[in-house]
Write a structure and sequence with these properties.
The protein is of the alpha+beta class. Helix content is 25%, strand content 18%. The chain has helices spanning 67-76, 124-135, 192-195, 206-210, 212-217, 267-271, 285-292, 319-327, 331-339, 370-378, 397-412, 423-431, 455-458, 471-481, 486-503; strands at 2-3, 16-18, 48-54, 81-83, 89-91, 105-109, 173-177, 180-184, 225-227, 236-241, 254-260, 277-278, 296-308, 344-345, 387-393, 415-421, 439-444, 506-518. A hairpin with a 2-residue loop joins β7 (173-177) and β8. α8 runs antiparallel to α10 (370-378) and α14 packs antiparallel against α15. The longest helix has 18 residues, at 486-503. It starts with a strand and ends in a 26-residue tail after the last strand.
Length: 544
């Protein structure tokens, strides 16, 4: 999962999307690093694609938890698999899909001839070393929990008092020979292969593991692009096409990310011809649609947004308080007023595009009923004299959260105040469970499975910023993970979602529809977006 920030009408898949960011770019993740024929040569200008982004939090794949970092990492690195337009696994470094006879022991053949950009060879042992680094408690990687199904994961975590981990290597990951990787899970999980296209599983070079801080500033990747220079914090990230990549070669020779901070967005620069792909903010949408016509691409996404609750806070530990807040939100009016009615009301945790989606798991708690909401709140110990703090990262999301606050104030009779921080600071405070009130939060999928909208966020993973624990919910998730086939697993995940919705640690509000505008430098016929992950296919994209 990656946390997504708003402003980002183009947010990326992966991770918890949280709050609204400064950049009006959505879904800039690289959707295809897959194997296949290379693209044709770029035909535009100086061969450079110019994009906007927020300041990433991190550029080490197993430590990336948000979309700004993910958009960059997906261009610099390539993993064993990616996902095709239908959400199926597509081998990149692997020769074929994972094989298993019991859903517990999985075998992957790593393709020969792949290297990092420093010349190091990639083989099965590369993944053994990388995943040991990713999981070890000393390294505190956000993506460590994505490996928790692998045997030996718990032994590599620090003790409750910070005691050293019992093991330094994952017992469940073994290189059987130079190019054969064997993965043993602690319990059978039919859905495990689906996760392997996610960036947390991407390989790292030995040189990178030897100096991870230096690698974060100047990544040593293995993907279709190679960084030019180093990460210029809060300013830019530049990269050139890397001809050593054996997967599908992109046609675009160079990509330059301009980093926006604070209230700045990419849209003014797009209109000035300085950025090639951008998304208008909600208030700019109608003018942009009339101005750019068929150069605006609108797509349904699996990017879901809602109001998260700090369940760790005494005031919001009561599910009835959370339900009262949710029932006080007129979702359709909110979408009509802010987003011209373009978005879809969310009444479930997993959106309709995701395998395993079940409609209206939220039920009455997501139905607008201000009188019932006020009555329910009156039955709780909620302190009506308390000014509720509503949190969001700085940028366009401040306006969106204000409208939400106004609804809550009018329908519940509460007072509220907006609290904002820059995106990295907001994310850190959220990770540390230091937010002192409800917060705007969103999620784009790391991989196409409804479980991804629940277990990483509300289970025992690092993205559980809500402080929520549900015994029945976690039990049903575990039953889904142990199902013999994916169809049975999805049924159990739906039951888990119902249990989650009954506790409502997050009130679903809307599912985003992108409005992406491309400039004259981009060939419109080459633009395509993965309908499940919401990512732009930069391998297919061409300058025009």
């Amino acid at each position: 999962m990656r946390t997504t920030n708003y402003g980002d009408s183009m947010v990326r898949n992966k991770r918890v999307i949280t709050a609204i960011s400064a950049v009006a770019l959505a879904g800039l993740g690289l959707a295809a690093c897959g194997s296949g024929d290379g693209g044709s040569s770029s035909g535009g200008g100086d061969g450079t694609l110019r994009l906007g982004n927020s300041e990433p939090q991190n550029l080490i794949p197993p430590n990336v938890q948000e979309t700004a970092g993910g958009d960059v990492v997906d261009l610099l690195y390539a993993g064993l698999y990616t996902y095709d337009m239908e959400g199926n696994l597509e081998p990149v470094l692997a020769e074929d899909v994972p094989q298993s006879e019991d859903n517990k022991v999985w075998t992957i053949k790593v393709g020969e001839g792949h290297t990092f950009q420093n010349g190091e060879a990639i083989n099965a042992d590369t993944f053994v070393k990388t995943w040991n680094y990713a999981v070890h408690g000393d390294n505190a990687n956000y993506g460590a929990s994505f490996f928790k199904q692998i045997d030996g994961w718990q032994d590599m975590q620090l003790g409750s008092d910070g005691d050293a981990a019992a093991a330094d290597e994952l017992s469940g990951v073994v290189a059987l020979d130079e190019y054969t990787l064997e993965i043993t899970l602690s319990d059978p999980w039919v859905g495990f292969p689906v996760t392997l296209g996610y960036s947390a599983f991407m390989p790292l070079a030995d040189e990178c593991l030897a100096d991870i801080d230096a690698c974060n500033e100047t990544p040593i990747g293995n993907g279709p692009y190679q960084i030019d220079g180093k990460w210029n914090h809060n300013q830019s990230i530049h990269m050139d096409r890397w001809d050593g990549f054996k997967g599908t070669q992109p046609s675009i020779e160079r990509i330059e990310f301009k980093i926006y901070t604070g209230d700045a967005t990419a849209w003014p620069d797009f209109e000035a011809g300085k950025i090639d792909i951008a998304a208008p903010n909600a208030e700019q949408y109608e003018v942009a649609k009339n101005t750019y016509g068929d150069k605006m691409f609108e797509d349904e996404t699996a990017q879901a947004w809602g109001l998260g609750f700090p369940v760790y806070d005494d005031v919001f530990s009561d599910p009835d308080v959370r339900k009262a807040f949710s029932m006080a939100i007129d979702r359709q009016a909110y979408i009509d007023g802010l987003f011209q009615g373009r978005y879809t009301v969310a009444n479930s945790y997993a959106p309709a595009a995701i395998p395993g989606h079940l409609d209206n798991t939220c039920g009455d708690a997501c139905s607008f009923d201000p009188e019932a909401a006020k009555d329910l709140l009156a039955t709780t110990d909620f302190p009506m004299d308390k000014t509720v703090e509503l949190w969001v990262n700085s940028g366009p999301g401040e306006d969106y959260l204000k409208v939400l606050g106004d609804q809550l104030s009018a329908n519940l009779g509460i007072e509220y105040v907006l609290k904002t921080l820059e995106w990295p600071d907001f994310l850190t405070k959220k990770d540390n469970r230091e937010l002192t009130g409800p917060f705007l939060t969103g999620w784009s999928p790391d991989y196409p499975l409804s479980q991804n909208y629940m277990e990483p966020l509300y289970g025992g993973g690092p993205d559980n910023d809500f402080g929520y624990h549900g015994e029945e919910f976690e039990q049903l998730l575990a039953e889904g993970n142990r199902a013999e086939d994916l169809e049975d697993a999805l049924v159990k995940y739906q039951e888990a979602e119902k249990a989650l919705a009954a506790d409502l640690p997050m009130a679903p509000i809307w599912v985003t529809r992108t409005a992406t505008v491309i400039g004259d430098n981009v060939d419109p016929a080459s633009f395509q977006r993965n309908p499940i992950l919401g990512t732009i296919d930069f391998t297919a994209l061409k300058l025009g």
